[in-house]
Amino acid sequence: MNRFYQRWAHSAGNQLHLLATIAGPVKLGLLVYLIFAASVQARTNVTLAWNPIANPLVAGFNVYYGGASGICTNKIDAGLNSSVTISNLTAGATYYFALTTYSSTGAESALSPAVSYAVPPQPAVQLAMPSANQFVLTITGVTGHSYAIQASQDLVNWTVIGTVTPGAGGSVAFTDSNAAGYPSRFYRTLDTSP
Fold it and tell me: Domain 43-118 adopts which CATH fold?
C-alpha cells in the first residue's frame, strides 16, 4: 500500500520545516493519509535604539520589558550603549519596553514612556497533494511579508524553490510540481522580510 506522510517540525529561528515522504509509486485512489501535528513556537529578536545622553552623571541605561503595559518582568543593563537586541521573543505576542538611566551610585531615573512591539506570528504551512505529480503548500503568514520556500532531501542541504507573499487574506499557495521526482522531500519556510 502506498503511504503519504505529512509532519511538522521546527528549527531555530523563524524557520518552519515540513516533511513529506512518499513510499513507493503513487497511484491515485490507493493513497492513505497519516497526519502528525506538533505545536511549535517561533522566537524572534528585536533591536531597540535611543538617543545617547551626554551627561557625566549617567553611568548607563536599563531596558525594562514585559507582556503588559506598565508591567516590566524583564530587565537588561545596556551600559552606555544606545541600543540593545532582545532575543527569544515569542511570535504573535506583544511586548512593551521602557528605558531608565542610572548613575554610578545606582540612582535610577523614572521609566520613559513605554513603546510596544507586536512580534509577527509564525507562518503556518499546510500540505496537500491534489495529484500524483505535485505538492501544494499553503502558507499563511503576515500580509505583505515575503517567505522563501526551501526544499531538501536530507535536512542538511536546502535549496530555495520559490518565494511567496501572502495577500490581503494572509495566505498563498505554492505548487511544487517537481516533488514526484524525489523519494522524500522536506520543506521549510523562512520569513525574508526586513
Answer: Immunoglobulin-like (2.60.40)
